[in-house]
Amino acid sequence: MKLEAVELRRIDIPLVRPFRTSFGEQITRDVLLVQASTDEGTGWGECVALADPVYSSEYVAGAEAVIADHLLPRLFTQQDLTARSVGPALRGVLGHRMAKAALEMAVLDAELRSYGISLGRYLGAERARVECGVSVGIAPTIDALLDEVGGYVAQGYRRIKLKIQPGWDLEPVRAVRDAFGVDLPLQVDANTAYDAATAPRLHALDEYGLLLIEQPFAEEDLHQHALLARRLVTPVCLDESVVSAAVAADAINRGACGVVNIKPGRVGGYLEAVRVHDVCAALGVPVWCGGMLETGIGRAANVALAALPNFRLPGDTSASDRYYAQDITEPFVLVDGQLAVPTGPGIGVEPRLDVLESMTTRVRTVRP
Ligand SMILES: CSCC[C@@H](NC(=O)CCC(=O)O)C(=O)O
Ligand SMILES: [Mg+2]
């Protein structure tokens, strides 16, 4: 394929409720969408970088700039562009994995649409539906938390994940256990909010039968995660730390985690996400698909990825209405706690152009 032009579109989508984590609160999502036009058709990609560099060092304005100024010039010169050649072509630019992932996704979508192959089939999906969990933010009160969790349980979500931080950890976990019982699949995510001084609070979580404790410490601190993993019965899961298949293998071999949250944007794309999946499978470590509040574009691709065999825990692949009153694609609807894997060519969904236009804050087309 030859890349002919790329449309970079920023959209603002309001969240149905504030989403608070240990690193801040989101009330709208500023999303960068990428539409790649090639000589064999077009494809869509979604950049998962947040508006601010608070989850990782990437942020949406920076991703847009590095795509336009450094990444696209390297792709426009490719005479026989394929999704598999995007990574090597961009290797000269260090980091910016979320930006690179968005471009690779758009090229992959265009390529698969031209062949009439679904992303799920291409990646090796083995299921037609995936089990869905849901992520619950830090709430203003315990009662508000229980109301929100009760709503998701009633909708049929297969697993509840609570955001925690020092001072909002033991009480919410205990309250959810008391209100919904010991059989509710339950896990927590600290987004790196703990350190050696506050780690003892996590020891106390070990008696609540959690599925896992996600990313309690700093991204680079595999040693602290390994110390905790040796001390707890509850598995430690890594998110921010795992930026590639090689890092996943190193973390597992250091005993830093027993479960891995895979996010394609965080590792540089869906092709690397499959490599992380495969490495974890080879080392006997289950994985699940994380989320970055994706629109239906990224959600469609995540659901396809989550259908691979070693995705053995419900992911943060929630229904569209968990975050958005109106998605930019036809909404993903939870049925019996599951989402259906798209079967159409490529990612299998298209944005609704009327909705897209209504949410667009800026759009530009980059050409060679
Ligand atoms: C804005 S918080 C994004 C990162 C967070 N994501 C979630 O909690 C799930 C979000 C979703 O359901 O898309 C994580 O660290 O796992
Ligand atoms: Mg996480």
TrEMBL record:
One GO MF term attached to the UniProt entry: racemase and epimerase activity
CDD domains: NAAAR
Cofactor: a divalent metal cation
Domain annotation Mandelate racemase/muconate lactonizing enzyme C-terminal: ranges: 142-235
Swiss-Prot/TrEMBL keywords: Lyase, Magnesium, Metal-binding
Keyword Metal-binding among UniProt keywords: yes
PANTHER family registered for this protein in UniProt: O-SUCCINYLBENZOATE SYNTHASE, O-SUCCINYLBENZOATE SYNTHASE-RELATED
Protein name stated in the entry: o-succinylbenzoate synthase
Organism: Planosporangium flavigriseum
Taxonomic classification: Bacteria, Bacillati, Actinomycetota, Actinomycetes, Micromonosporales
